[in-house]
What we know:
Blueprint: H1 2-64, H2 108-111, H3 113-125, E1 131-135, E2 141-150, E3 153-161, E4 164-165, E5 167-170, E6 179-180, E7 183-186, H4 195-205, E8 213-222, E9 233-244, E10 247-261, E11 264-274, E12 288-289, E13 294-305
Antiparallel strand pairs: 1-5, 1-13, 2-3, 2-12, 2-13, 4-7, 5-6, 7-8, 8-9, 9-10, 10-11, 11-13
Amino acid sequence: MEQHFSTAKSRITASKLSLTVSDSSVRQLKLITIVLLAALLLAACGGSDTSSADSEEAPAAADTATPVPVPTDTPVPVPTDTPEPDPTATPEPEPEPTDTPQPEPEPAAAATAAPQEEAESESAEMPGMGTTFAIVAEESEARFIIEEELLGQPKTVIGTTNALSGELTVDTENPAASAIGTIQIEAGTFITDNDRRNGAIRRFILQSNQYQFITFTATELMGLPDAIAVGDDVEFEVTGDLTVRDISSPVLFIVTLQVVSESELRGTASTIVVRDALELTIPQVPSVANVGEEFIIEFDFVARAQ
Length: 306
């Protein structure tokens, strides 16, 4: 009986001990739980305070920070829509040159052949390609011939001068390239068989005190042969402008040219001029009447090579 009681008592004691241990464990667990909850609450409160402190210190930092410059109104360039090349795209290979032969440039001689031919053609028509001859005034003469009535009788009036100058260029191999330069005559040097007439011609008709020269400017030579040699007599025509007192009129001269030598030419030239074409007025003189409306101009000249 006692043994049974002892055994029961031992079991009870063990049970109490077990309960005591269990109660102690439960209390420990509760304490740990409370400590953990307190730690969590402290951590939460600490994080909130830190955030608040950071948020409170941020304005102070902003107050002490260096002010940022405000951007101006300079317009920002707008990027274009040009597509960027695809870096992954494989570049296309450049086409290799073919073996097709390129046409070779024509020689410069061929390129300039046509202009050269034109230049030669033009030079053949230009004066100055032959020999130039100058008129020798002392051996030459210019004259006019006009009809009138003097004291009721018909009269052929001839006025002459050797105060003339000019040049001729003759190309014997290509006569078409020959030319005649401007011919000049001293207007105040004409002499007739009457001094009163001479004075009237100088003062009233030619007005030589104001207009010193009578000029002829050739524009075209026609009827020249294909070639000219020493000893030839050549007849041709020359057109040009005759100018008296700054009044010009077109005229045509018939020219006969004798090639005396390679250095000397002799010739004659003549034309008929209408007085009204040059506005030549004859002064009214009681002893002179019926002055011709037309008159002849002639040249006898000697020209030598320069």
